[in-house]
Every structure is written in C-alpha cells, then in structure tokens.
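HUMAN: Mind making up another protein with tokenized structure?

ASSISTANT:
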Amino acid sequence: MPEIKIGALGGLGEIGKNLYIVEVDEKIFVLDCGIKVPPSEFFGIDTIIPDYKYLKDNVDRIEGIFLTHAHDDHINALAYMIDDINKDVYASNFTMALVMDSFQIEKKDPANYKLHVVNEDDVIDFKDVTVSFFRLTHSVPEAFGISINTADGSILYTGDYSFDQNVDLDYRTSFDKLSMLGNSGVLALLSDCYGARNISTDSYQELLFKLNAIFKDAPGRIIITSFSNDLRRIQQIIDVSLKYNKKVAIIGRKTQRLVDIAINLGYIKIPEESLVSLRYIDDKNSNNNPDMVVIVAGDRHEPYFMLQRMCKKIDRLINITSLDTIITMTTPTDGSEKLAAKTLDLLSRVNTRIHTLSKKILETSHATREEIKMMINITKPKYVIPVKGEFNHQYALIDIANEIHYDINRVIILDNGDFAIFNKSEREHKILSFPAGEILIDGNVAGDVNSVVIHDREQLSKDGILLVIANLNPKSKNILAGPEIASRGFINLKDNQDIYEGIIDSFHKVSEKMLVNRFVNWNDYKKEIKDEISRFLYKELQRSPVIIPIIIATDEE
C-alpha cells in the first residue's frame, strides 16, 4: 500500500481560497487554487490567496493542478501562483476558458503555460496513479469532480455540487460514474459541506413559478439582480424573458466578460436579436424600453451598489422609475446586510415595484443534508473528509454520518495545514509544520501587505492621521520653522486650541531633550516625537491617530 496524505492549504474553517493536496508517495496532486473575499476589516485588500510556500518548496514533486469548476474561489489564485508552480493544469473546456481570461486580466499570456482541456472520459496516467473526472451539478456548466485512483482505492474530491435534476446536459451529474467509482473502492471522499445544515427543497420549480407570476403582471421594464458567477440562474432569467417576448440586457463589467465567453462557447443560449447592448443615457436615449429585462449582476455587494446608483439617477445606463419592476435574486452575503437594507429603502422612495425573493427558493447549488447522504451512499467511502466550509459545516458531517449509520470515527475533520495520513498500518492524523496561512493581494502587490499595514489602515479609518512638520538645521540643531500641524480624519484643530498647543508643547519637549546631544539619531528623534504626542492625545481624547513626523533638514540659518 502506498503512503497517502490528504491535506489543505485553504478552504477549511473558512469560505474561499480552496486548495487541497493529495500526496501518493512522492507524487503531489493539487486540487483547485481559489481566492477568498477579504472581510471588511481588511482595509484596501483586494484578494486573499493561500500561502503556497509548501508547493513552491516541493514543486518538483507536483504532477499537476486539477480544477473542478469556474468559480473564483476555486480557480482565481492560479494566476498569482502559476509563475512559481508552472505545472500542467487540467480543467474542463468552460473552466479553462475562465482560467485563460483570468490570466489575461493579470497580463499573463496563456500560451506560456501548460493548460490542458479535459472531458469526463479522459484518464490521465501517472504510472501507478491515474486521475479521472466525473460531472457534477453546480451553478456553472461543466463542473467536474476529480478522482485520484491508487492501488489502495480512489480519493474523490467533489468541489461544489448538488443533485438537482432540473438541469441541462452541461450541468448534469454522472451518476453512473459515481456508482462505478463506489463499486471499485473509495478510500476517502472529500465532500463539499457548505450546505450540510440545509434541508432539501424543490426550489427550482418554486422559483420558476414566482418569476412567471412577476413577469406576467409587470407593466413595464423589469430589473433583476443576480450574482455574476451563477450562470445557471442567468440562463433561467433569459429563458423566462424570452417566454414573454422581452429583450435582455446584462449590466456588470465582469459579468459581461463571463457571459460573452459563455455565449461564444454555447453555454448560454440566447438569440442574437434578443440580447441588447445599452447606450449611455442622453437627451435622445433613456434605455426605458418597457419590453426589456435588465440583469444587474456582480459579486457580493456590487448589484446593490448598482441599484443605488440607478435610484439616485447617476448611473450612465439605467435610471429607475416608478414604472419599473425590481426583482432581487441576490441574498445578502456576510457584511452586506446593511447595504441591502439601504438599497431597498432607496427603491421604496422611488415607489417602484419590489420583489425580494426569499433565501428559501434561491438555492445555493451546494449539497444539502440529503444530497450529502446520497453521495456517501453511492460512493461508499472508507473515510469522509468534509471540505469547502467553516467548522460548523464540517462538523455537520458527523451528524449526517450518524443519521445514516456511517461510522462517525471515519469522518476526519481537518484544518488548513493538517494532513490525514494513510499507510499500511492504521490511519493516523497529525498537524504538520508547513505554512497554511494567507497571502494578501493589494492591487498588483502580493505578499507585501502584512498585519502591520492592516493595523495602520484600521487606525486611519478610526482615528485619522496627524502630520507634524518642522524645518531644522542639522548642524546647529536649531528649529528654523514649525512645527506645522496638519490632520485628516482627526479633529478640527482650529476649534480645539488646547489640543493644538498640547501637540506643539509635546514636540518642543522632545526636541529640548534630543537636540542637546552632539550626535542626533534622527530616527529615534522622530520616534520620540510620535510616542510623546501619542501619549498626550490618548490621555486627553482617548484617540490614537496615525502620527507621522516630517523633519526637513536645511543648512541655512
């Protein structure tokens, strides 16, 4: 029996930056390379990716990178990582099209990398290990599960999935392959657990009924929000729009790129004459066609921001009026609840028709409790490792296993940086010392934004900044001018003369102490100024602005 290790650099105990590792003896197989959306307290950070130092240190052992589906939290870190781990990448046709698009956005030529399009019938041979694929249903087409087949059984990684039966061929699950893999012997099932606490509902038919009812009664233009990565739902909106002979316009820069790719590859189906491009609003054009459906799509909070601009009539393409019908199909994500509430308030002020669809009928395309039970029963794994979720989702797999009389001791809960190790003896589980942290991306800068920078940004957002500017002669150590005090986001110093004079006094107190020495350490001098003023301000105001002393050296008296 080979030694098999299963672990993660991201995706466990969190939502996003999915990156899992399967090692068979000396061979490393990388499963997905995703990003994570930064929380609001990560000021100015655009993206978070897994710390992949372990992969860089072991790059010669990597056999390939295998991607499940075309969502950012599974593929978009690859554009940042690929130059360091330029290995063969395998993905379905649609997933690879989105990977290539992400490379081009980051100004990387896809032709410089080893990108391989695979289908569900392909088997990649790595001598004593093979890798095969099976289709699963998700909100984007051609979502694949990945099977790493060893002499001791297969390791199945599902990515995101559901068993919804109301799907087109591009979204359909390969139940026959799942059954075949289960009968051949599965060592470990790495199952999506994000929906493990959800109860199954027939939300598709309910949503379809609701959309038809709204479309039927809408007197004019219909504006619908959607998440940009939910192509299946965008197709559903298009189908209902065509049923009622309406033109369709799609707003959202990223969404338009994604939809254009999907249309060109045949994954979104719409007659050319039914898809319209909007022109900027002017005296001759209002884009207010009553027979038009406008899909407002984006990530996270973006649809709400766009609706707010439309309500305030500052959007270049759409100005919402009382004749419009608004359908929100974007359930607020963590941190965007206030934004959603404010948007609904603005829509109400316009006196438009608002339909907020309930979370119950907006299915997430993640396996529910019953679907996870079905996956376990079909594949019959020796071990189950819940992935793609926070700890409460992972631990829900223990309850699910108990309900179907699966040995709960064979449900392995891992954290990022853990390895479950399988060898000839009994299975053991231990934490290894390789890094499994995060790399923060700020614009085009990767890895240079650390906790100190984030702390400074947090301070700036709370207490503002204070500049202390003085002109000194470094030879005579005389203060030639200043100090001048400037602040942003702090207090109005003109209205707080005592505070202003206290800052000046603190500066002179430090100067009298530091400038009497024959040799002055200018860094220590500025640090003392910063510390003394900080102590004064906190004592008087209980506030801690970022203080930046600026000492300008001038030789002239």
Observations:
- The chain has three domains: 4-199+363-446, 203-356, 451-553.
- The first helix runs from residue 53 to 57.
- Residues 88 and 114 are 5 Å apart (CA to CA).
- The mean pLDDT is 85.
